Every structure is written in C-alpha cells, then in structure tokens.
Amino acid sequence: MASQQPQSIQTLLEAEKEASKVVQQARQYRVQKLKDARTQATKEIEEYRKAKEQEFKAFEASHAGSTQTAQTAIDRETEVKRKEITEQYLKSKDQVVKKLLDRVVLVKPELHRNLKKVES
C-alpha cells in the first residue's frame, strides 16, 4: 500500500497537469473564437456599409435629374412672375403717384366728425 500511494499521487499530479492543459486549450480556443467573431462582424459591417453607400449613391443619382428639372421649372416660373410684377409696376406707377400727390396737395379743410359746433 505504501508503494501505491506515491504512484497514485503521481497519477493525480499527471491528471491535474493534463486537466490544466485542457483548460488552457479551452481558453485559447475561446479567445480565438472571439477574435474570429470580431473579425467576421467587422467584415460584415463593412460590407453592409458599402452596400448602403452604393444604394444611397444610386438613389441620389436617380433623383438628381428630377431636382435639376424642378429647379429649372421654378426658375422659369419666377422669371415670368417677375416680368408680370414689373409690367404692373410700369403700368400703374403714374396713377399711384398722381393719387398720392392729390391726397397730399389737395387738402380740404373740414371739421372733424367728433367736433361739434358750439352755438353762441
């Protein structure tokens, strides 16, 4: 029995070393899997970003023509309205100036409606 104890202790020590190696390998495996997962996630994020960027550029390109067309239409409409306003101004300015001068120059003195005549 005495000779069996050192051998069983040796067996236990070897088993402990083996278990320690297995645990260390499992930790390394876990760390490697985490690194791989991060790398894969980064790659997927980059691919997704590129796809969305291309989608946005395509959307922007397809709507760029309509923006220019709308701007051209607005510019034309603005020019037409500006010409109409200028024509109205040129047509009406003499009459407006005459009315203003008549109001300022031709004063008719009258008593205010709230003022009553006092009879003496």
Keyword list:
120 residues, mainly alpha, elongated, proton-transporting ATPase activity, rotational mechanism
How is this structure best described in words?
The protein has 120 residues and is an all-alpha fold. The chain has a domain at 1-74. The protein has one helix at 4-105. Residues 12-54 form a coiled coil. This is V-type proton ATPase subunit G. V-ATPase is a heteromultimeric enzyme made up of two complexes: the ATP-hydrolytic V1 complex and the proton translocation V0 complex.
In short:
This protein has 1 helix and no strands.
Number of helices: 1
Report the sheet with the most strands, covering strand number, pairing sense and barrel closure: none
Proportion in helices = over 70%
Structural class: mainly alpha
Radius of gyration: 48 Å
Mean pLDDT over the residues: 89
First and last CA, distance: 153 Å
Spatial shape = elongated
How do the helices and strands follow one another from N- to C-terminus? H
Number of strands: 0
Uncertain runs: none
- Strand fraction equals under 5%
